[in-house]
Amino acid sequence: MSLFIIVALPFLGALLPGLMNAAGRAACAGVTFTVSLAAFVGLLTNLPQVLAGETVTARVDWLPELGLNFTLMLDGLGFFFAFLILGIGLLIITYARHYLSRDDNMGEFFTYLLLFQGAMVGIVLSDNILLLLVFWELTSLSSFLLIGYWKHLPEGRQGARMALTVTGLGGLAMIGGMLIIGQIVGSYDLSVILQNRDLIQADPMYLPALILILLGCFTKSAQFPFHFWLPHAMAAPTPVSAYLHSATMVKAGIFLMARMWPVLSGTPEWFVIVTTAGLITMVLGAVIALFKHDLKALLAFSTVSHLGLITMLLGTGTAFGAFAAVFHILNHATFKAALFMSAGIVDHEAHTRDIRRLGGLRGLMPVTFVIVTIAAFSMAGIPLLNGFLSKEMMLEEATHTVLFSAPWLVPLLATVGSLFSAAYCFRLVWHTFLGPVRDDYPSKPHDPNPGMWLPPALLAVLVVVIGVAPFLAEPFVKMVTASLLGVAAEVPDKHIKIWHGLVPALYMSIVAVVGGFLLMLAFKPLLRIWDAAPRPEAKVIFESIVEAAASLAGALIHRVHNGAFTRYAAIGIVVMVAAGYHAWSTGTVGPATRDLQPAGPVSIAGWAMLVAATGGLVAMHRNRFLALILIGIVGLMVSIGFVFLSAPDLAMTQFTVEVVTIILLLLALNFLPNRTPVESTALRRVRDAAVAVAGGLATFGLAYHYLLRDAIAAPISEFHLANSYKGGGGTNVVNVILVDFRGFDTYGEIIVLGIAALLIYALTETLLDGPVRRRLLNRTPDQPRAGDMHPMMMVVVTRLIMPVVLMVGFYIFLRGHNEPGGGFIAGLIVSIAVVMQYMASGFAWTSARLRYPYHGVIGAGVLIAGLTGIGSWFVTKPFLTSDFTYVRIPPFHEFELATAALFDLGVFLAVVGAVMLSLESFSRLARRADTEDSEHPMDIDPSREEAAAETVSS
Amino acid sequence: MELLVASAIGVLTAGGIYLVLRLRTFPVILGMSLLTYAVNVFLFGSGRLTIGAPPILTDDVTNYTDPLPQALVLTAIVISFGMTAVVVMIGLGAFLGSDDDHVDDQPEAAKAEEEQ
Question: What is the ipTM of this complex?
Answer without folding.
Answer: 0.93
